[in-house]
Write a structure and sequence with these properties.
This protein is α/β, with parallel strands linked by helices. It has one domain (2-196): Aldolase class I (TIM Barrel), CATH 3.20.20. It has helices at residues 2-13, 29-32, 41-51, 60-66, 97-103, 119-136, 159-171, 185-193, 210-222, 232-235, 240-251, 257-268, and strands at residues 21-25, 55-58, 75-79, 81-82, 92-93, 107-114, 140-146, 176-179, 198-202, 227-230. α6 (119-136) links the parallel β6 and β7 (140-146). The chain starts with a helix and ends in an 8-residue tail after the last helix.
């Protein structure tokens, strides 16, 4: 029964046509503080859903209060952990797998930072939640990054550390691993090859133009990645709907960066493709 449930949820989570994932995360407030563009959060969620992402990641309270009207329109990923502005490299569990099931989530996710002194504790938390997810037949996603204090600053972007992070997630039973982009398709292809889990990337601070993010999404797909889970790049704009639609063109229609940028300009009726 659990295996069938997991297959059903995974098919709701991934795009039917491509098997890829275009997810948008709005779980940043507890981790990074309050953003003007995430207020009011209900309006922002509605604008993102209008673009048609495959899934959205959020915490349980926001899901319960703001996602009801969007039930069935896009998959829900329940975030089960968070770091904070005061402990930026420590993720603590804040939700149980069973809460995700009660909320109707199609997957649960956990953050995990490797390379630091508290890596053992964070790995243990991830492994426990992954085991519970498997028991209940719900896909497990890990946001796992090599940014611990025991990795030299000049090595934090090295592909081998990223590969270690994603492989560790797979070793603990994670189905989809979200991590940082290594900066070029060749090294990211090595990251993808290091793990049997699906690999998606976070947006982060990739650039100042929409083309920078569209190019990263294109490179990730061409390197064998399974898609993207972007946050700030999508919601920290005046038109999240247009951003999502342009990203869909790259990820699910194999569109070019120029085509996506032109689509974004047409949808927003602006000339320069600069982020606000």
């Amino acid at each position: 029964m659990a295996l069938l449930g997991k297959e059903i949820r995974m098919r709701r989570l991934l795009n039917e046509k491509t098997g890829r994932l275009l997810a948008v995360a709005v779980d940043q407030a507890p981790a990074r503080g309050i953003f003007d563009e995430l207020m009011p959060i209900g309006r922002k969620i509605s604008e993102i859903v209008e673009g048609g992402p495959d899934a959205m990641t959020m915490h349980k309270g926001i899901a319960d209060m703001c996602f009801r009207q969007h039930a069935g329109k896009t998959a829900l990923i329940l975030k089960c952990s968070t770091f904070s502005p005061f402990q930026p490299n420590y993720d603590v569990q804040v939700a149980e797998v069973e809460e995700g099931i009660r909320l109707g989530a199609d997957a649960v996710s956990m953050g995990c930072i490797v390379g630091g002194g508290d890596q053992p504790e964070q790995l243990r938390s991830l492994a426990v939640v992954a085991g519970r997810a498997a028991e209940h037949g719900i896909p497990m996603i890990a946001h796992i990054y090599p940014r611990g204090n025991q990795i030299p600053a000049e090595e934090k972007d090295h592909w081998k550390h990223v590969a270690y992070a994603v492989r560790t997630g797979a070793e603990l039973g994670v189905d989809i691993v979200k991590t940082k982009y290594t900066g070029d398709p060749d090294t990211f292809a090595k990251v993808v090859a290091s793990t049997p889990a699906r690999v998606v990337v976070a947006g982060g601070e990739t650039g100042t133009q929409v083309e920078d993010y569209f190019q990263m999404a294109k490179d990730v797909i061409e390197a064998g990645g399974a898609g993207i889970t972007f946050g700030r790049f999508v919601w920290n704009t005046s038109n999240p709907t247009a951003i999502v639609q342009a990203l869909k063109h790259v990820i699910h229609d194999n569109g070019s960066v120029n085509e996506a940028a032109e689509m974004y300009r047409e949808l927003t009726a602006i000339t320069p493709a600069m982020l606000p």
